[in-house]
Specification:
The protein is mainly alpha-helical. The protein is built from 4 helices and 2 strands. A hairpin with a 6-residue loop joins strand 1 and strand 2. Helix 1 packs across helix 2 and helix 1 runs parallel beside helix 3.
Length: 137
């Protein structure tokens, strides 16, 4: 799996499952009014197990859906109160977002062809070896 994301608490690269799990953990920390977890929440005693479970659930969801659909569902107004990736109400929400992504028109790729016979502009000076250091005198 490609590492297209960066950890929210750290500026280190991570994959989609780790990013989604960290997103959910931070949301739960805000709900419980604990404050933002430590520098690397997967190393703290209180968050390590919860984070590992969420990473496992994220991998299961990523087998069915795209990472964009999962994040859109979590950030939507109906998904904003979900604090675990194992909730039964989350899957229909992700399915809906995945359907929107699949049905969205994809940008057309434009192919450029070289129709003209134009050439790059030639140099103005005939002397190719101009030394600017000798100009001061």
């Amino acid at each position: 799996m490609a590492k297209n994301y960066k950890h929210i608490t750290k500026d280190q690269e991570c994959n989609a499952a780790q990013y989604i799990a960290e997103f959910v953990c931070l949301r739960k920390a805000e709900k419980e009014n604990v404050g933002r977890p430590a520098y690397a929440l997967w190393n703290t005693k209180s968050w390590k197990r919860y984070y590992q479970y969420q990473v496992g659930y994220a991998y299961k969801l990523l087998k069915e859906f795209s990472d964009q659909a999962i994040l859109r569902a979590l950030k939507s107004s109906t998904g904003s109160w979900m604090y675990s990736l194992n909730m039964k109400k989350l899957k229909p929400l992700i399915k809906n977002e995945q359907k929107k992504i699949d049905e969205a028109p994809k940008p057309k790729q434009v192919e450029y062809t070289k129709d003209t016979k134009s050439q790059p502009q030639k140099r103005f000076s005939k002397n190719k070896d101009i030394n600017l250091r000798d100009l001061d005198g």
